[in-house]
Specification:
This protein has 441 residues and is of the alpha/beta class. It has 14 helices and 13 strands. Strands 3-2-1-4-5-6-11 form a seven-stranded parallel β-sheet, sandwiched between helices. Strands 7-10 form a two-stranded parallel ribbon. A two-stranded parallel sheet has the order 8-13. Helix 6 crosses helix 11, helix 8 runs parallel beside helix 9 and helix 10 runs parallel beside helix 12.
Length: 441
């Protein structure tokens, strides 16, 4: 018989009961982990581990090992590396700007006895007179230094003794053009400082000040670096206040032959403070007074280099005007120490950095005669336009807040400069051999 499929709609099909889980007990989420821990005896192992660790640290106390900065061949203990910082400054290394780019130490405090971590620092104008001495000191301290210079007034010979050092880089670059770097600190020394150089193209001088300041301070903002501007005593012009304090606003001729430099530096200070107030950039401002020492440009038109070069060449010492104008002269190593203290300190400035010892031009000529040639003659010439009559820094603020004051007198520092000039003028030694005379002073 054929099979039939019979459907009886009126009959209901049997259905299986649907699955329903057991209701959770109210304390299951607490009791189950406890049962698991007790069953596996895990607390016992925890307590045994704690007991063993306590015994080891009690019997064998540990002492911290010195921390050595990575990729640094020059590491110095804090008492040696920061001998020119006051104790209160050493205790305030409280951000990555003082410890190094990308530091893993958020508090920034360096335990006593540990070695200081090197910083990554850019020095614009680092192949120049002051910049090269600053580079020497930073390299000796254990920092990695990038020198940016277009060699308008700088000389490669000033830094060539660092070639081959992995902590040193030299970039030939005009910093009015953008520059992308990752650094902790920026020392901005790039500018023509002598009248011969800044009067050569006065329009470019003042325009470059504005462009430079925007670019370099903008770089500091982008990477969070601390920025130090080297300004000048020329912001005081022909001062009516004597000696000059940082609170003095100056007496500057805005349309004179020197104003491209004077007003350029005043504008640079303005931009620096605007970046600080408006963008939160960490800034420092130094107002540098007359500085001398090895590696100065021989014919840069500044009075000390003029007198020394003229005396060595057996030429008359040219005194402009009546020779009663006064200046204050600091040795380059004193200035470098002041710049580094300012950078590492907690105060913005501006700070006067100069030697308060005051000399007339005739007195300076006499010191040069005593040092080089007692028979050197003095020749008077008409004074230059807008030449300041008096210039002397009040450094009480730097003494109080930075713990800084100059140590090298004119009669002690001048022979070191004369030795360098004699080598370069007469070729007694290879050029560039005078690398560390001033830095070791």
């Amino acid at each position: 018989m054929g099979s039939e499929l019979i459907y009886r709609g009126s009959e209901t099909q049997p259905s299986s009961d649907s699955y329903s889980p057991k209701p959770l007990k109210p304390w299951a989420s607490v009791t189950r982990p406890l049962h698991y821990l007790l069953r596996e005896q895990r607390p016992l192992f925890v307590f045994v581990g704690i007991a063993i660790a306590t015994l080891i640290f009690t019997v064998f106390p540990t002492s911290p090992a010195p921390y050595v900065a990575p990729h640094s061949r020059f590491t110095t203990l804090i008492p040696d590396s920061i001998t020119y910082f006051p104790i209160e400054t050493q205790q305030k290394f409280s951000s990555a700007h003082r410890l190094g780019f990308g530091s893993a130490n958020p508090t920034g405090k360096i335990p006593l006895g540990l070695k200081r971590k090197g910083l990554r620092i850019v020095v614009t104008g680092g192949a120049g007179f002051v910049g090269s001495h600053l580079v020497d000191r930073l390299i000796a301290r254990g920092d990695s230094v990038i020198v940016v210079d277009n060699f308008f007034t700088g000389r490669k010979q000033n830094v060539m003794h660092h070639f081959g050092n992995p902590n040193f880089e030299l970039i030939r670059h005009d910093v009015v053009e953008p520059l992308l770097l990752e650094v902790d600190q920026i020392y901005h020394l790039a500018c023509p400082a002598s009248p011969v150089h800044y009067k050569f193209n006065p329009v470019k001088t003042i325009i470059s000040f504005i462009l430079l300041q925007n670019l370099i301070t903008g770089l500091a903002k982008r990477v969070g670096a601390r920025f130090l501007l080297t300004s000048t005593s020329e912001v005081y012009g022909d001062p009516l206040q004597h000696p000059q304090k940082e609170t003095y606003w100056g007496n500057v001729n805005p349309i004179g032959v020197r104003s491209c430099y004077d007003e350029g530096k005043r504008t640079a200070e303005t931009l620096t403070m605007d970046y600080h107030r408006g963008a939160g950039v960490e800034v420092r401002i130094a107002r540098i007074f007359n500085t001398y020492g090895p590696r100065m440009c021989i014919d840069d038109g500044r009075v000390v280099s003029n007198f020394v070069a003229q005396a060595l060449r057996k030429e008359p010492l040219t005194v402009y005007g009546d020779g009663k104008q006064t200046r204050s002269f600091q040795y380059v190593s004193d200035l470098v120490g002041g710049l580094m203290r300012l950078m590492e300190g907690e105060h913005i400035g501006p700070f006067n950095l100069g030697n308060p010892g005051e000399f007339t031009m005739l007195e300076l000529a006499e010191v040069v005669q005593e040092t080089i040639d007692p028979n050197a003659k003095i020749e008077f010439r008409p004074n230059t336009e807008d030449d300041p009559h008096k210039r002397k820094p009040d450094i009480s603020r730097a003494k109080q807040l930075l713990g800084w004051e100059p140590k090298v007198s004119l009669r002690k520092g001048l022979p070191l400069m004369v030795s360098d000039f004699r080598q370069r003028i007469f070729g007694d030694h290879k050029e560039g051999s005078n690398t560390n005379n001033a830095s070791s002073s």
